[in-house]
Amino acid sequence: MSTIVDFPVKSEARPYLDAFERLAASGEPAWLTHGRRRHLGRFAELGFPSRRSESWRYLDLQNLVECPLLPQARHGHNEAALRARLAEMELVGEGPCLVLVDGIFAPELSRLELPSGMWFGPVSAALEARPELVRTAFDSDDTDAFVALNAAFFADGFVLDIGPGVTLDRPIEIVHLASGEAGGSVHTKSLVNLAAGSRATLAETYIGQGSSPYWRNDVVALNLGEGAALDRIICVEEGAGAVHLGAVGANLGPGAHFAGFALLLGGHTVRHEIVVTMAGEGARCRLDGAFVVGGRDEANIVTVIDHQAPGGETRELIKGVAAGRGHGAFQGKITVREGAQRTDAQQTSRNLIIGRHAVIDTKPELEILADDVKCAHGASVGDLDEAALFYLCARGIPTDEARRILVEGFVREAVERVADAGLRERLLRRLAVRLGALEAEA
User: Fold this and answer.
1) Edge to edge, what strands does the sheet with 158-162 contain?
2) In this predicted model, what pLDDT tens digit does every residue of 147-182 receive, in sequence order?
3) By C-alpha distance, which of 367, 305, 362 is closest to 331?
4) Dihedral angle over CA of 381, 387, 389, 392, nearest 10
5) From the CB of residue 125, how many other CB atoms can be counted at a distance below 10 Å?
6) Which residues contact 149 (CB under 8 A, 6 or more apart)?
7) What gap in Å lies between CA 227 and CA 257, rounded to an integer?
8) Which helix (H) or strand (E) holds 139?
9) How confident is the model at residue 23, as a pLDDT?
C-alpha cells in the first residue's frame, strides 16, 4: 500500500488498495496508470460516505463497508445464456447497440454501425482512437469517493462523440449486463460529447439476475455544446442482491437541451445521482424518474441542478412507490446563482406507500441567489386513493388487480414524459412486470 499512498487511510479503503496492486494492468498509457493511482489515493483519503453526509443520509452502506465487494478479473461468459437474457428483456432494437458484460465490452453481442460525423465504441478502443477525449474526462478532480474509486478501477465503458449539426434518428442503446457468473464489483466509466447543434437519444439498461451480491459503480459524463439536444433514458433492473450506484455529471452550453429519465425497478440498494451544470445562457433541463421498491430494498434518486447563466429552465417530476419494508428517497436541489436572472425552475416529488412498513423520504430544496426568477417546488407522500379503489372493485375488478391499476397509473405519468414511443412502451412493459410482483409485498 505504501507504493500508492504515504498517509493514513480509511480502514474501509484498505482492501481496495490491496486489490489495486493485485489487478494492476500492464500496457496502459503512463498518464492513465498515474491517474488511476492518484484517484485511488483520493478514495483512500475520503473513505466511504456515511449517513452524516447530507446527500447520503437516506442510504445504508454498512454492509458494503463490512463485506467489501472488490474488483475481480473477468474470464469470459456464457454467450448463449446472455443472448437469451437480452431476448427475454426485449432490450435490443435495430439501431446501434453496445453491450458490456460485467463491465467489459462484448463485441459479439454489440452492433456499432453509425453514420459519418461521429465516433461510438468502448472506452478500451477509445484509448487508442480518441485518447484526448478519455484523458479530458479522466483528469478532473474528485470530490466524491465512489467517482474516485471508479476512476481507479474502471475496466471499460463507452464513448459517444457526435460532431456539429449531426442528428441521429434512432436511439443508441447501451446494455450493462451482470452475468451472474462473477461477484465482486464492476466499475464502468463513460463519456458523451455532443457538439453544437447535434441531437441524439441514448437508452441505457442495467440488468442482472440471481440473488448473489455484486456492486455496480457506474460514472457517466455528458457534455452538450451550444444548441445540442440529448435525451437519456435509463432503466435499472439489477439482481436481487445487487448494489447499484450510478453517478452522472452533465454540462450544458448555451441553448442546449437535456432530458433525463430514470426508472429504478430492481436491486437491493440502488442510487441514481445526476448533477447538471447549466453553464450556458438559455439552457434547458428536464429530469423525470420513478423508483419502485419492495421487500427490504432501498432506492434513492438524487438530483443537483446548478443554474449559472441567465434564462435557464428546469422541470423535474419524480415519482416513488414503496411496498413491504422497502425504503425509497428523493433528494433534489436546484441552485440559482447570482447573475442567473430569468431562471424558471419547477421541482415536484410525489410518492405512494402501499405497505404498512414501507418508508419514503423526500427532500426538495431551492437555493436562490438571483432576484428575477420563477421557482417552485413541492412534495407529497400518501396512500392509495380508497375511493378510487372502491370504485374499481365495485365494478367487478379484483382488489389486487384494482390496486395494480391505480399504482401503474400513478407511475405512468412520469414514464410518459419519455419522447421516444418505442422506448416509452418498453419501459411501461417492464413497469407492469415489476408491479405484478410488487403486489404480493404490499
Assistant:
1) 118-122, 158-162, 185-194, 214-224, 242-252, 269-278, 298-307, 327-336, 359-368
2) 999 999 999 999 999 999 999 989 999 999 998 776
3) 362
4) -150
5) 17
6) 16, 39, 40, 43, 187, 217
7) 7
8) none
9) 77
Neighbouring residues of 136: CB distance < 8 A, sequence distance ≥ 6? none
Average confidence (pLDDT) over 394-423: 90
Residue carrying C-alpha cell 430544496? 365
What pLDDT digit, counting tens, does each position of 250-305 carry? 999 999 999 999 999 999 999 999 999 999 999 999 999 999 999 999 999 999 99
C-beta separation of 305 from 336 below 8 A? no
Contact 361, 391 (CB under 8 A): no
CB atoms within 10 A of CB 65: 14
CB-CB contact of 217 with 146 (8 Å) = yes
Helix (H) or strand (E) holding 395: none
Query: How far is the CA of 399 from the CAs of 188, 221, 320, 391, 428, in angstroms?
Result: 43, 45, 21, 11, 21
Domain boundaries, the chain: 79-384
What is the rounded distance in angstroms from the CA atom of residue 196 to the CA atom of residue 180? 41
For the cut 90, the answer to whether the pLDDT of residue 84 exceeds it is no
d(CA 60, CA 150): 20
Q: For all residues of the chain together, what is the average pLDDT?
A: 90
Q: Pull the grid cell for residue 349.
A: 416529488
Q: Which three cell numbers stand for residue 385?
A: 386513493
Q: Give 15-51 as a DSSP string.
A: HHHHHHHHH--SS--HHHHHHHHHHHHHHHHH----T
436: three-class secondary structure by DSSP: helix
Q: Of 69, 50, 433, which Cα lies nearest the Cα of 244?
A: 69
Quick count: other Cβ atoms within 10 Å of Cβ 109? 19
Whether pTM > 0.90 for this model: the answer is yes
Does position 1 have pLDDT exceeding 50, yes or no? no
- Alpha carbon of 15 to those of 46, 71, 139, 422: distances in Å? 14, 10, 24, 44
Strand ranges of the sheet holding 172-177, from the earlier edge strand across to the other edge: 104-105, 97-101, 172-177, 199-207, 229-237, 257-266, 284-293, 313-322, 344-353, 374-382
